[in-house]
Design brief:
Length: about 190
């Protein structure tokens, strides 16, 4: 791997073993090849947010995620759409990270894609994620917008993405995230 390899943290909003969103993130890693080093976050052990629990400290799984976000050059989300918004699992994880110090999404370059079995491909969840992360000062890539509709017809039983157009969109998004990260870091005071 080249020394300037982009470190991307992939966060799936689905805990499901055969999740299309997790499969989309694996596809992104494959398509990036040597240009990016992917780490896959797990939200499985993050407890439900409870202020009483937070007052006792930061749970290990939350601290692990916080450190992963801090160390990453950029974040790539893929979220399912649950009842027109992001999954509760993802919102809960973000709620935790908004209550730790340092808040790790501040100034972070981020991109989002979504996969769903419907015709909209999770578009509504994407816009909610953008809105949720406004207050946390994350900086989103605007385009391309990758909404994987009819996901059950595009991935095979092993989670391999067969649809060539969607593969191209995902590859373009990873490239756009790299360019966005370089642009943002060039503008940062040293
Ligand atoms: C509670 C729940 C709510 C859902 N709501 C929506 C929805 O609003 N829009 C949509 O396109 N799909 C919806 N779905 C279907 C998901 O798109 C589908 O389950 C998808 O496979 C979830 O992503 P995953 O494969 O990454 O787990 C919903 C599924 C669940 C379980």
């Amino acid at each position: 791997m080249p020394s300037e390899t982009l470190k991307i943290l992939a966060i799936s909003g689905s805990l499901r073993q055969d999740s299309f969103n997790s499969a989309a993130l694996k596809t992104a890693a494959d398509l990036a090849g040597d240009s990016a080093e992917f780490t896959f976050a797990s939200l499985a052990d993050i407890p439900l947010y409870d202020q009483d629990l937070r007052d006792k400290g930061v749970p290990d799984a939350v601290e692990t995620l916080q450190q992963q976000v801090l160390k990453a050059d950029a974040i790539l989300f893929s979220t399912p759409e649950y009842n027109y918004s992001v999954s509760g699992v993802l919102k809960n994880a973000i709620d935790w990270l908004s209550r730790v110090d340092p808040q790790p999404f501040a100034d972070k370059p981020v991109a989002v894609m979504s996969a769903s079995m419907s015709a909209f491909g999770g578009a509504r969840a994407q816009y909610d994620l953008r809105r949720i992360l406004i207050y946390l000062d994350a900086h989103f890539v605007n385009k391309p917008e990758v909404m994987i509709s009819f996901a059950h017809k595009k991935f095979d039983d092993n989670g391999a993405l067969k649809d060539e157009d969607t593969r191209k969109f995902i590859g373009d998004l990873v490239e756009a995230l790299g360019k966005w990260q370089r642009r943002l870091s060039a503008g940062k005071p040293s």
